[in-house]
Amino acid sequence: MYSSMSRLEKLVAVEEKLVEMSKEFLKEEKSRLHSLESFVETAEQQLQMSVNKSMSLVHHPVGAYLLVKRLSSDWLQHVKSVYQPLTDFVNRYNSEYHGQLPSAEDAEWSAHAILRLQEVYQLDIRNIISGQMELGLSTNNVPGSMEQNALRLKREDIFAIAKGAYRNNDYRNAVKWLNESIQLMEAEEVTENRENLEESEDAGDTSGALRYKGNVKKENLKFSALQYLGYSLYKQGDLEDALAIYKKASSLDPKHDEVRDSIKLLQRKIRSANMFGNVNNDEHPRPWASASNAKMIKYMALCRHELKPRPDVQARLKCRYQSNGNPYLLLGPVKTEVLSRKKPEITLFYDVITDEEAQTIKNRSLPKMFRSRIGNSFSEVESHIRISQQAWLHDKDDEVVSRVSKRIGLLTGLNTTPTSTELLQVLNYGLGGQYEPHHDYMTAEEKMWGTILGNRMATFLMYLSDVTAGGATVFPVANVTVPVVKNAGLLFMDLLRSGRGDVNSLHAGCPVVIGSKWIANKWIHEGGNEFRRKCGLSPNE
Ligand SMILES: O=C(O)CCC(=O)C(=O)O
Ligand SMILES: [Fe+2]
């Protein structure tokens, strides 16, 4: 469900219905409880009159009749009147919302999305927690104070995200999130103790003011958070701090065997480290799966707009109105920006489609969307590398689709008829949705398209939406970051003139921070373009 914003948007309507159903239930429940209350009151009154009075009501025929009637039916009716609607409510929830609700796995992935955004955009955890995730990002769309309050994370949520990092073997971030969640738990303990103290003073009871008023659940949460923290510190090689944390956990539950064993183990490890001077801190975990390599580090820096092309390369970039000598484009030449002139040339065309056309394409795709996969014709898998939903549109699906295909032909000077292209691929990214660095062409082994269509020669990527933050398209070799510009089209060559894949065409879709990013890809193939883009004389040309 997290894999596309359009699916997440549907959840809003589901929750709207849930709120409606619950409000109705509560209203009826209140009146039912109210009538139960007055029934119980009456019964109690009559009971007192039967027990205490000189003339017991039960000796009176009407009193006896009422007692028998109450016990033979009224009580059952009232108990049922409370019980039955509750089961109906649960049954309705289970049947009406079955299949529409996200799973625990969805929740876990959503927590991962927050971690990914934190990592890629180097966001401050405290800003994320306080509902100000966009601080430090280039956006003017900052939430108001009411929204900020609604976006504030609670200690349980912070703990859940920490556990997500932990499960990812990302102990560095697990430590950060666990520290925050424990700090919050402790701050809340202080306020609660103060409130309890005030309450007891009000009641004139100062003796038991600091007595443990026992919210066991909360204590368990902290105990468990401390265990996670201790282990994460240990995995990071921070033995002394890990020991201190385990001791703190032990003070909450001195009889806990696992914690006591961990303390002994850590003390032993610290002693031997002092003796031999070498701390075995296991392997240093990586932030998220593949972030350790240079390619990923560069990808993330480009997503943050931190890298620019070399100055000499930048100086040769230009902006022009392009008509390719074509009469259609002469009437309204397209504003074009060349973002890289080295191979592969990367060009951004502004306003290649209209808002209405973009909307039509999105509407046509919505019923056909499925989770994107990566791979080739032999094996395709769902993966965090590409978090989105996609649909394929035929030219004949809508007049707009064929019109746009033709327009891409005019803009690129390439053959974009159905025999030289793939269908239009429409994509909607999900929560933290991204597409990690990849090439669009297929290698010889992958053999996706056969000899007539040939390999993907050029990519024409159109942005069908804006986003509030994140989601740029980046080229880690060319050092180019292309922000999402609604209705613009991005063109780059995937192959060298020789037909070999151009490794420099490496590119990626950065994680979307805020917003719903829609794109449409038109892949133009070699077949039918032999004379439009001629072979070079050297394999590297
Ligand atoms: O979303 C982007 O900006 C890049 C998408 C992409 O590279 C692809 O779909 O092949
Ligand atoms: Fe791509």
Automatic annotation (TrEMBL):
<dbReference type="InterPro" id="IPR019734">
    <property type="entry name" value="TPR_rpt"/>
</dbReference>
<keyword id="KW-0560">Oxidoreductase</keyword>
<dbReference type="GO" id="GO:0005788">
    <property type="term" value="C:endoplasmic reticulum lumen"/>
</dbReference>
<keyword id="KW-0408">Iron</keyword>
<dbReference type="InterPro" id="IPR013105">
    <property type="entry name" value="TPR_2"/>
</dbReference>
<feature type="domain" description="Fe2OG dioxygenase">
    <location>
        <begin position="419"/>
        <end position="526"/>
    </location>
</feature>
<dbReference type="InterPro" id="IPR011990">
    <property type="entry name" value="TPR-like_helical_dom_sf"/>
</dbReference>
<dbReference type="InterPro" id="IPR005123">
    <property type="entry name" value="Oxoglu/Fe-dep_dioxygenase_dom"/>
</dbReference>
<keyword id="KW-0847">Vitamin C</keyword>
<dbReference type="GO" id="GO:0005783">
    <property type="term" value="C:endoplasmic reticulum"/>
</dbReference>
<comment type="function">
    <text>Catalyzes the post-translational formation of 4-hydroxyproline in -Xaa-Pro-Gly- sequences in collagens and other proteins.</text>
</comment>
<dbReference type="GO" id="GO:0031418">
    <property type="term" value="F:L-ascorbic acid binding"/>
</dbReference>
<comment type="similarity">
    <text>Belongs to the P4HA family.</text>
</comment>
<dbReference type="InterPro" id="IPR044862">
    <property type="entry name" value="Pro_4_hyd_alph_FE2OG_OXY"/>
</dbReference>
<dbReference type="InterPro" id="IPR045054">
    <property type="entry name" value="P4HA-like"/>
</dbReference>
<keyword id="KW-0677">Repeat</keyword>
<keyword id="KW-0479">Metal-binding</keyword>
<feature type="repeat" description="TPR">
    <location>
        <begin position="223"/>
        <end position="256"/>
    </location>
</feature>
<keyword id="KW-0223">Dioxygenase</keyword>
<keyword id="KW-0256">Endoplasmic reticulum</keyword>
<dbReference type="GO" id="GO:0005506">
    <property type="term" value="F:iron ion binding"/>
</dbReference>
<protein>
    <recommendedName>
        <fullName>procollagen-proline 4-dioxygenase</fullName>
        <ecNumber>1.14.11.2</ecNumber>
    </recommendedName>
</protein>
<keyword id="KW-0802">TPR repeat</keyword>
<feature type="region of interest" description="Disordered">
    <location>
        <begin position="191"/>
        <end position="211"/>
    </location>
</feature>
<dbReference type="GO" id="GO:0004656">
    <property type="term" value="F:procollagen-proline 4-dioxygenase activity"/>
</dbReference>
<keyword id="KW-0325">Glycoprotein</keyword>
<dbReference type="InterPro" id="IPR006620">
    <property type="entry name" value="Pro_4_hyd_alph"/>
</dbReference>
<dbReference type="Pfam" id="PF13640">
    <property type="entry name" value="2OG-FeII_Oxy_3"/>
</dbReference>
<dbReference type="Pfam" id="PF08336">
    <property type="entry name" value="P4Ha_N"/>
</dbReference>
<dbReference type="Pfam" id="PF07719">
    <property type="entry name" value="TPR_2"/>
</dbReference>
<dbReference type="InterPro" id="IPR013547">
    <property type="entry name" value="P4H_N"/>
</dbReference>
